[in-house]
Design a protein that fits this description.
By secondary structure, the protein is α/β, with parallel strands linked by helices. Helices cover 58% and strands 13% of the residues. α1 crosses α8 and α3 (59-83) packs parallel to α5. The longest helix has 25 residues, at 59-83.
């Protein structure tokens, strides 16, 4: 089973992945990963596209770098883990590119989807948790962690478009997305996420 966690900055995705993995550990074989990164190549791309804020990266270049990291991750980590029966928990996946580079940067969504299909071999998550919150709150949380990365440095209007993009994606695929109010406590969110995952595992062949 392939589960992804998406949402604007500061939504608590990493926290929820950690809590869910701890709850499932010992019952299931798990693989935890993230985007961009998760492989040697992907980690180098992460340094370029997120961590080195001195670089001037065009939106199309940014998207293609994310796609390159994603292609490597699918082939090196995600597909092999799924083939051996693992539950894969991934911190962001292609929905982030559609929201950030599509709705946020204004790139053509059809083009992004076509490249994503090639990069992933058509691999889609079985379940996606969208941790939703207002950009102002998310950016305040991100600021409390320390220095902003490239995406976090963008203006508020950009982050508002990104949030709208995520919500549009969720509306278009209600069978895959589960939207959560990320202003709730981590414990409340975890309890709901765990319930959804366990229920899905029970009914999944």
């Amino acid at each position: 089973m392939f589960i992804t966690f998406e949402g604007p900055e500061g939504g608590g995705k990493s926290t929820q992945i950690k809590m869910l993995s701890q709850a499932l550990e010992g019952q299931y074989s798990l693989t935890l990963t993230r985007e961009p990164g998760g492989t040697t190549t992907g980690n180098k791309i992460r340094q370029i596209v997120l961590e080195d804020v001195s670089l001037d990266i065009e939106p199309l270049t940014e998207f293609l770098l994310y796609s390159a990291s994603r292609s490597q991750l699918v082939r090196e980590v995600i597909r092999p883990a799924l083939q051996q029966g693992d539950i894969v928990l991934c911190d962001r996946y292609f929905d982030s590119s559609l929201a950030y580079q599509g709705f946020g940067r204004g790139l053509d969504l059809r083009f992004l989807q076509d490249v994503t299909w090639e990069a992933t071999g058509g691999l889609r998550p079985h379940l996606t948790f969208l941790l939703d919150l207002q950009p102002e709150i998310g950016l305040e949380r991100a600021a409390a962690r320390g220095q902003f990365d490239r995406l976090e440095q963008a203006d508020l209007q950009f982050h508002e478009r990104v949030r709208e993009g995520f919500l549009n994606l969720a509306t278009a695929e209600p069978e895959r997305f589960y939207v959560l109010d990320a202003t709730r406590t981590p414990e409340e969110l975890h309890a709901e996420i765990l319930h959804v995952v366990q229920s899905t595992l029970v009914f999944r062949p």
